[in-house]
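Sharing a chain and its predicted structure for anyone who wants a worked example. Both blocks are below, sequence first, tokens second.
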Amino acid sequence: MKVHERFLYYVRIDTQSDPKSDTSPTTMKQKDLAKILVEELHDLGIDNALTDDYGYVYALVEGNVDATAIGFVAHMDTAPDYSGKDVNPRIIENYDGGDIALNDATILSVKDFPEMLKQKGKDIIVTDGNTLLGADDKAGIAEIMALVSHLVKHPEIDRGPIYIAFTPDEEVGKGVANFDLSKFEAEFAYTVDGGGVDCIDYENFNAAAAVVEVQGVSIHPGSAKNKMINALHLAQEFDSLLPTHMRPEYTDGYDGFYHLGSVHGDIDHCTMEYIVRNHDEEKFANQKTRMLDCADFLNKKYGKDLIEVKLSDTYANMKKHFADKMYIVDIAHKAIESVGLTPRSSAIRGGTDGAMLTYMGLPCPNLGTGGGNAHGRYEFCCIQDMELVVKIMLSIVKQVSGVIGNES
């Protein structure tokens, strides 16, 4: 089975995670894909493949030489931002570089998404405009499974132990909440989770969630003068104190941001939910402090404790953990060069399971997948790029088995 054929099968399985759920996984339907992947691994002869109560999939491709154990990780869930149910993908062969009609009402426009021009002449997979595609991160899963299949079919390829893991709930920040390192005894690993196929990324955002509770004073509007405090207006006032230029739609590169994701409430009480992001630790700390200061300012202005900001860190930038482990990145650089591309690294404007695994003691930078425009109806994935990713991972396997021995 070709890598894109695996992908087309996986994306039709609804695995959307739920940030409001307290279960693990947050949606039981993620286990549907986990079971399928274990069955496929068994069919490939990887008898040790298993899925646990939390929906994680673990497997070990046994080595045939004495070399460092490495791993590859991808996540099974799709983002809660947009529907992942009844995904109906289609292949556009030899894409001409023009606009794509996803359906009668939805156009994937080159003007809006100029990066599509890089896909000209390639075969790309798109949605029907009603759902996301799921390349984030079922492309990564398909590529890892294709690698496993290739290694099984070619036992003559030298390799050390190769650990495989597929995680639930990455999109809601819980991808490694129950990750069992005793089932994944790699010295280092790579997430295969988005970005260009020429990328090997080892820095990401520091991230926090902020819940802002706003208490109003509800009075009949006919007698509200000098008495009513409308929680909805107060919430707007709080948001206006945060810098407009630090909203996601005005930022890129190393710019941090405040992102207001939801507002719900009424005159009496309102709740706002933000995510806070910055690559720089000091700037990140200052952003969180600013939110607390804004609440303090308004509480003093109104003479009442009307606003409470609840902050919780969710993940941290993994860059500093690679200061003495850049050989892991260098291996990926050489692998990317081996397929004729010039490797580059970028600051991930988000997070991966790899960032949290790195903090758990498992260095884990990120490889690209060939997907783009994630989390929405304009998502796509390039078939030729998916094939390159499999070759890049295979090159990593060959390098490790022949170059770095048992280096830690």
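Comments welcome. The first helix runs from residue 3 to 11.
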